[in-house]
Amino acid sequence: EAAEKGGYPHYMLKEIYEQPWVLENTLGGRLHEEEANVELGLDLDLARFDRVHVIACGTAFYAGWVGKYLIEELARLPVEVDVASEYRYRNPVVDERTLAVVISQSGETIDTLEALREAKRRGAASLGVINVKGSSITRETDATLYIHAGPEIGVASTKAYVAMLAAMEMLAIALGRARGTLDAGTARRLLGELRKLPRLVEETLERRPIVAHVAEKYHQATDFLFLGRHVQSPTAYEGALKLKEISYIHAEAYPAGEMKHGPIALIDPRLPVVVLATQGPLYEKTLSNIQEVAARGGRVIALASDGDEGIRQHAEDVIYVPEVHPLLAPIVSVVPLQLLAYETAVLLGRDVDQPRNLAKSVTVE
Ligand code: G6P
After folding, report:
1. ipTM over 0.90
2. What residues make up the catalytic site (predicted)?
């Protein structure tokens, strides 16, 4: 087993460190700058859909939520995102111009499989965004976009998440190009940025000592709040999910702009608040959210882009990440949050790879 962990103390840490090459695999051969497009080999006419339903569970659901922002932005298609256990029973409005995108690492999650069947019964075309080759879901979708993350053993998903995000970026580009909503210049720029991701994630992994310091400082907290906006809202939710899954610390996430409608009441000097404050169109608004937390005595841990020295005035701790196109920020930003969950769980003596009550894939309802 020690050999399988490749010298790392846990599968989860090994898988976190595999993320640069996982991204190489996911993107490999699929980016075509000359045509300003991606080549996904999908047997689907992407121009014919007028709405998208994204369906998934757990971490895959958060990848789907990022996908909603991307597809709406680049392909101007209305996108709904549901957790599969809700979708199956909510009487969704579907027709033959609906594309159902089901996202699953294992390809075996029963709720996701049943939600896929429900969408198909109602006439949707279907696309799986899947890791495990030949898994149940891939046998029932019209097309599959494999994420090529390799086997994921740690129960808490890490490398499959970044691979799913990269796949959703490519899908949004493909839809945008097929529909004529994404011009060649913008597409080329995004492709160039996607190519940089493996290197940027590699660089982000080097920030582990700062994350370890933050974990050391806050691991006795009983609650954490994670805030983000736009594409970084799902990142906040994924950060909170990772922390609760493996450290058992209660963690909640909110879109930062919604904080004033409830969670602001929780803020006090014992509450660490992780704020995704990377560069992007909503940066200034996020900064005001940080000031609101700080003014109420909350302990702000900001995740900021390299070079943002000003943020130090408002945040007690800052974890810097390399700057990247705002639509790709979730891929880089989730890495320190995975490490924060990992380091915290280790400090608390938790069973990182086999957290209590959780299963790697849930095949019963
Ligand atoms: C379980 C796992 C999660 C995973 C979810 C969905 O709850 O513990 O890590 O995100 O299932 O799994 P899937 O294989 O469908 O992506």
Report:
1. yes
2. 360 (for fru-6p isomerization activity)
